[in-house]
């Protein structure tokens, strides 16, 4: 069931993304030969007009196939074809390329807005609370409890959820002793009363746990349904902020890349966990995944939308001088090989993590 749910979620996100490319390409007058969910081999295909709509076996993405994607401006007979992708202006080609990620961002915003309109509860990230305490962790030993509000760490006032991991990380990395742990003072508010709690933060915590062994959540406040669209926009911005913090944690060594990056297997597991918490959690997860898919597609890697935009940008800088079609095709092929290899490595890490219980 987890696999079915994950496939449905991913299929919807791919459908939304590729529909963006499809509709803008049609409006620009470009011929679309195929609209596909998944990668070949094909399971079923239905042709309507000049476009074949197909469902393929490998559920790792999808595509809108247009003539001229690798720079060709002629048809099979060598005649000039004004309906190829390459025959369009740079502006039209850019619009087609960014349409997919734009649709994913819009879809994420709609899901977030719908979720908050129904629940009428919005998070307040300026009030971080402890949501999870790992068994056997320093937090558990110190007597911290779920729903404790974190007010300060070592006397530094905490103004947001992102401050918690940053302050703990700074305290641990700035300690140059040979001790296995670093003493921290967490000021928490419990039942309206503040107290200082002494915690021994680990320099080398177990995989999957932080130095203190806590998960951070936030308090929720009541909102009116008409406020939901604004909260949806805020949620995407807040997600980006957390993503930036995650990148910072990877670069500074707080989190290992293998623990922070997940692939198809990890997504299946996460989708199953979200669905077990109800339709609201699944919609929230889908929204989160939607904008993540948009960000990944904007990376300047050949074969992705971002890579194609990069090639287009080079063309503009060269005042319209294009790469040879065969060279552009080779660059995009190399990008796809790299991406598939990366997915294979991430999938191996996901499986290893699940088997080891982390």
How many DSSP-defined strands? 8
Cα-based radius of gyration, to the nearest Å: 24 Å
Please describe the biggest sheet, giving its number of strands, its sense, and whether it closes into a barrel: 4 strands, antiparallel
Shape: elongated
> In the residues, how many domains can be counted?
2
Looking across the biggest beta sheet, what order are the strands in? 5-4-6-7
Tally the helices: what do you get? 10
Residue ranges: pLDDT <50 for 5 or more in a row? none
Structural category? alpha+beta
Give the termini distance in whole angstroms: 21 Å
Report the mean per-residue pLDDT as an integer. 86
Q: Helical percent range?
A: 40-55%
The arrangement of helices and strands along the chain is HEEHEHEEHEEEHHHHHH
Q: Report strand %.
A: 15-25%
Explain what the structure shows.
This protein has 10 helices and 8 strands. The protein is an alpha+beta fold and 358 residues long. The chain folds into 2 domains: 2-116 and 289-355, no CATH class; 123-222, Pdz3 Domain. α1 packs across α8 and α2 (90-119) packs antiparallel against α9. The protein is elongated, with a radius of gyration of 24 Å. The model has no long low-confidence stretch (mean pLDDT 86).
Structure in a nutshell:
The protein is of the alpha+beta class. It has helices at residues 2-27, 90-119, 138-142, 161-173, 228-251, 257-260, 264-276, 279-297, 305-317, 325-355; strands at 34-48, 51-65, 121-133, 149-153, 156-157, 181-190, 193-202, 214-222.
Comma- or semicolon-separated keywords:
Pdz3 Domain, alpha+beta, single chain, 2 domains, four-stranded antiparallel sheet, 358 residues, two-stranded antiparallel sheet
């Amino acid at each position: 069931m987890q696999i079915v749910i994950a496939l449905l979620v991913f299929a919807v996100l791919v459908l939304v993304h590729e529909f963006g490319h499809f509709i803008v390409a049609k409006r620009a007058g470009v011929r679309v030969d195929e609209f596909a969910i998944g990668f070949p081999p094909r399971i079923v295909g239905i042709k309507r007009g000049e476009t074949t709509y197909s469902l393929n076996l490998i559920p790792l993405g999808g595509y809108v196939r247009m003539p001229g994607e690798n720079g060709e401006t002629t048809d099979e007979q060598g005649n000039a074809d004004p309906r190829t992708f390459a025959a369009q202006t740079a502006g039209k080609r850019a619009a087609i390329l960014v349409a997919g990620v734009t649709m994913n961002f819009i879809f994420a915003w709609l899901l977030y807005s719908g979720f908050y309109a129904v629940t009428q509860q919005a998070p307040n990230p300026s009030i971080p609370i402890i949501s999870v305490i790992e068994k056997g962790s320093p937090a558990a030993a110190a007597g911290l409890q779920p729903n404790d509000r974190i007010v300060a760490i070592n006397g530094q006032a905490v103004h947001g959820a992102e401050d918690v991991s940053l302050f703990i990380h700074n305290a641990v990395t700035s300690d140059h002793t040979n001790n296995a742990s670093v003493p921290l003072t967490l000021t928490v508010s419990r039942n309206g009363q503040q107290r200082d709690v002494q915690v021994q933060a680990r320099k080398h915590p177990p995989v999957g746990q932080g130095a203190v062994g806590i998960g951070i959540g936030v308090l929720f406040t009541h909102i009116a349904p008409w406020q939901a669209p604004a909260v949806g926009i805020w949620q995407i911005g807040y997600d980006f902020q957390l993503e930036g913090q995650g990148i910072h944690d990877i670069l500074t060594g707080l989190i290992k890349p293998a623990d922070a990056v997940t692939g198809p297997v990890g997504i299946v597991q996460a989708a199953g966990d979200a669905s077990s918490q109800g339709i609201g959690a699944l919609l929230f997860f889908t929204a989160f995944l939607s904008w993540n898919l948009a960000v990944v597609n904007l990376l300047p890697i050949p074969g992705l939308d971002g890579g194609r935009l990069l090639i287009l940008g080079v063309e503009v800088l060269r005042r319209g001088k294009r790469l040879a079609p065969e060279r552009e095709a080779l660059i995009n092929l190399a990008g796809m090989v790299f991406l598939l290899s990366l997915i294979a490595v991430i999938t191996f890490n996901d499986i290893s993590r699940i088997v080891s219980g982390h």
